[in-house]
Amino acid sequence: MWITRVLGDCPRCSARQTYGNASISNNILLRGCMVCRHHEEFWLPDLHKKIIYLDQSFFSGAFRARDPRFVHAAEHIKSATGNQLLVAPYSSLHEDETHQWRGHDGKLPSDLMSFIKQASGGNEFEADYEVERRQIVKAFKAYLVKEPATYVLDSKDVLRGNIHKWENYIFISIDGYFRDIEELRNAKADAVSTLIHAFDEWQTSNNSFEEDVNIENRAAGRIYIQLYLEMLGKIAGGDYYAYLNAPIATTIVDAMRGCLSKEMPLTDQLEVCAQFFNSPHFFEVPSHWVSAHIYATLKHQVKHGSYANREEAKKRLSGIFFDVKHISLYGPYCDAITVDGPMADLIRQPTVNLQARYGTSVFSVGTFDQLENWLEQLKANMSEEHAEAVRRAYG
Question: pTM for the complete prediction?
Answer without folding.
Answer: 0.90
